[in-house]
Amino acid sequence: MGDMITGIAYAIAADILFGSFGVPIKSPAVVAAKVDPIIFQFYKASACFLTSFLTLFYVDFKFTYWGIVGAAIWVVNGTLAIVAVQKAGLGVAQALWSGLSIFVSFVWGTVVFGEPVKHIGLCVVALLLMAIGMAGIGLAAAGRFKEPLGQDLEQTRRLIMDEDGRGKYEVRNNNFRIGILCAVYVGFANGSFMMPLKYANKEVKGAEYLMSFGIGAMSMTLLLLGGYYVVNKMIGRPFPSFQTQVKQTIPTNPKLASDLSG
């Protein structure tokens, strides 16, 4: 019983932290600077790598290749999660991928690893209710960037054309769809995020896994960064700035503050 309470407490703490990690992505300074998702992921991975050394204060260093596997999942997920938040908004994107992650994690736990479930019927009901909630979020968000209809259409087109000749509502619709697709991928893949840890338990226990994960996170991100540099070089596009001069500011514009929510 004690282990269960401890596990639930850690799960709640993790939920709060995971639910908040996307907040800096929508901060005014980052939004204004248009920080590239892969650059943002580089800073995330750097923080992960550096903080993983803290575990050496209370556990011995042990290496497992499962940490590299877990980190590879995390790096791809992390990058696409940033894209999802930037294009679909924090509330919609994170709600969508969190719900999908629970579905996938449930399958991994009950079907693949055979973890016992006391009330399978209640679990099914809970998953169905969550599915309804996710559908509600999707339907509510779908109307945010609807194309104007009727006699106002041409007037709206004239008012909001961008420099490429496309309506801004069209651009935002496309961005929103891309964000939703990224969030769906993150949801399914994120549900498998803890799978390597389950297999790694034969070699390492608990916090011993984190050092391998940190090394993997930094290594995979550097590979991603290198590949991104090569691609940009090949297509003749400048490599994105690392934005070392970005400073946090408090939004005073009500519209800007509203945009942060999505």
TrEMBL record:
<feature type="transmembrane region" description="Helical">
    <location>
        <begin position="176"/>
        <end position="197"/>
    </location>
</feature>
<dbReference type="GO" id="GO:0015144">
    <property type="term" value="F:carbohydrate transmembrane transporter activity"/>
</dbReference>
<protein>
    <recommendedName>
        <fullName>Transmembrane protein</fullName>
    </recommendedName>
</protein>
<keyword id="KW-0812">Transmembrane</keyword>
<keyword id="KW-1133">Transmembrane helix</keyword>
<feature type="transmembrane region" description="Helical">
    <location>
        <begin position="37"/>
        <end position="59"/>
    </location>
</feature>
<dbReference type="InterPro" id="IPR012435">
    <property type="entry name" value="TMEM144"/>
</dbReference>
<feature type="transmembrane region" description="Helical">
    <location>
        <begin position="209"/>
        <end position="231"/>
    </location>
</feature>
<feature type="transmembrane region" description="Helical">
    <location>
        <begin position="6"/>
        <end position="25"/>
    </location>
</feature>
<keyword id="KW-0472">Membrane</keyword>
<dbReference type="Pfam" id="PF07857">
    <property type="entry name" value="TMEM144"/>
</dbReference>
<feature type="transmembrane region" description="Helical">
    <location>
        <begin position="65"/>
        <end position="85"/>
    </location>
</feature>
<dbReference type="InterPro" id="IPR037185">
    <property type="entry name" value="EmrE-like"/>
</dbReference>
<comment type="similarity">
    <text>Belongs to the TMEM144 family.</text>
</comment>
<feature type="transmembrane region" description="Helical">
    <location>
        <begin position="92"/>
        <end position="113"/>
    </location>
</feature>
<dbReference type="GO" id="GO:0016020">
    <property type="term" value="C:membrane"/>
</dbReference>
<feature type="transmembrane region" description="Helical">
    <location>
        <begin position="119"/>
        <end position="142"/>
    </location>
</feature>
<dbReference type="InterPro" id="IPR010651">
    <property type="entry name" value="Sugar_transport"/>
</dbReference>
